[in-house]
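Lab notebook page, bench 4
Experiment: in silico fold of construct C2
Operator: M.H.
Input chain length: 243 residues
Purpose: comparison with the prior construct
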Amino acid sequence: MAVFLFPPGHLKAISGKRFSHGRQPHAAGKREGLVTSLAMMWKLKGELEMEYFALVVIVVLCVWGVAVYNRLRTRKNQVENAFAQIDVQLKRRHDLIPNLVEVARGYMKHEAQTLEAVIRARGEAVIAADQARQAPGQAQAMGRLMAAEQLLGGQVGRLMALAEAYPTLKADARMQQLSEEITSTENRIGFARQAYNDEVLDFNNEAGKFPDLVVARLAGFMHMDMLASTQSEQERAVPQVKF
């Protein structure tokens, strides 16, 4: 009997409203899921882009670091090659000095102390050159080499000054030949030293610039010392060995 209290059309409208109200929550859930999925996809895209960007930065830094290292290595090789040219001339000088002493010994029998001082200075110079050969540009090695060569030059200069008092020694053909060879060797040492110092300057300029400085320090490229001839103007004068 209660069914007939409502017209049939009214019942259909009520049932339609109930059906429509039952579908609305399901549609809203779909929309929320879609928005969440899009947000996740956007976040993932951003993370991938950051990873790619970081990878590109790492690759660029690695390529730059390798380029800087290779450039510094080339500069250091040039420094070592320049020092090798000095070393060749120093060896020649060290080989000539014993011959010079032996020739002088035959005439300067009363100057044994001076001759022995030359030989000792030559021995110290040989040792210093061997150490410098192992570490070209290293401050301590270069300092020892400069000090030893200054001492040797001073002793040879003193010997030449004393030889002026021995006319027969000055007239000796072997002494004259040694004189010319030592003078030529001294000149070659001077040119080789200048070339070495130029290479050291170029290396220090490269290794001291930022940001190359970072790679230089990480790779162990340290500041290199130049090779000065002497410390004073008097010492800079090449010993005169003319006869």
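Observations: The helical segments are 8-105, 112-134, 139-163, 167-171, 173-207, 212-218, 233-236. The CA atoms of residues 26 and 86 lie 90 Å apart.
Next step: discuss at group meeting.
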